[in-house]
Amino acid sequence: QPKATMPRIFIFRALVTMLIFVFTFSFWLFYVVRIMENKEEVRYRSIVYFAVSLVDALLFIQYLAVILLELRHLTPQYSIKVLRSPDGES
Q1: What sign has the CA pseudo-torsion 12, 13, 18, 21?
Q2: Residue-averaged pLDDT of the chain
Q3: Closest Cα to residue 16, out of 75, 74, 66?
Q4: What is the pLDDT of residue 89?
Q5: Mind listing the pLDDT tens digit for each residue in 23-65?
Q6: Is 55 in contact with 48 (CB distance < 8 Å)?
Q7: What single string gives the DSSP state of each residue in 23-86?
Q8: What phi and psi values does residue 79 have, to the nearest 5 degrees?
Q9: Does the CA dihedral 42-43-47-49 come out positive or negative?
């Protein structure tokens, strides 16, 4: 019988996934409000700038995920020195 009844939740993975979801949802929401409401004023350049800002935000999240991955795998390093008891030689 396993002790756990629910699946494990990986905190860093869940945090990065939620950040990606929030960023993507908010950018699409602003896209609908900004671009779709002003169809006659929309220029290709403004759409490209908006897409570039989304790519920049997602790239920032990727950098953050790599840093969190590295922090998770940092473990203390130990050095063990063995001494022979009769003469103290290592």
Answers
A1: positive
A2: 82
A3: 66
A4: 60
A5: 999 999 988 888 778 777 778 888 888 889 999 999 999 998 8
A6: no
A7: HHHHHHHHHIIIIITTGGG--HHHHHHHHHHHHHHHHHHHHHHHHHHHHHH-----------TT
A8: -120, 125
A9: negative
Here the tokens at position 82 are: 């063995």
Tokens of 80: 């063990």
Contacts of 89 (CB under 8 A, 6+ apart): 83
Give pLDDT, residue 52. 93
65 in Cβ contact with 15 (< 8 Å): no
